[in-house]
Amino acid sequence: MFARDNKMIGIEPQLPLRDRVRDLNTKAYYLLVALSFLYRASAPSYLLKLALTLTALVAVLPVLDYVESMAVLAGIRLFKVIGLASALVFTLVWIWTAL
């Protein structure tokens, strides 16, 4: 699957750029709508705001288009996993403290 020079080979072909941009635009729109309702909420829910902001940062960023090295891609994936796990922890703490 990978060559000796750490380049990715044998991966599935990506969708055309226009389709990827449209999908990203749709995700970003729904994310912004959800965040706008949350940030205008009267109750100070900082943990939930932090969780959704982390989720937005790590889930929406299209890094595969910009990275060609497997080592860098593995580091970014690790950052995304840590960010999503942190968002989950913040969400669970928010749920437990909101009760």
What can you tell me about this protein's structure?
Helices cover 68% and strands 0% of the residues. It contains 3 helices and no strands. The protein has helices at residues 17-39, 46-60, 70-98. The longest helix is centred in the last third of the chain and has 29 residues, at 70-98. It starts with 16 loop residues before the first helix and ends with a helix.
Topology readout:
Blueprint: H1 17-39, H2 46-60, H3 70-98
Helix pairs in contact: 1-2, 2-3
Low-confidence stretches: none
Output mean pLDDT: 76
| Assembly state of the chains shown | single chain
Question: Helical stretch count?
Answer: 3
Largest sheet: number of strands, sense, barrel closure: none
When the domains are counted, the total is 1
Residues in helix, %: 55-70%
Q: Using only CA atoms, what is the Rg?
A: 17 Å
In brief, what are we looking at here?
With 99 residues, the chain is mainly α. It has helices at residues 17-39, 46-60, 70-98.
What distinguishing features does this structure have?
99 residues, mainly alpha, 3 helices, 68% helix, flat
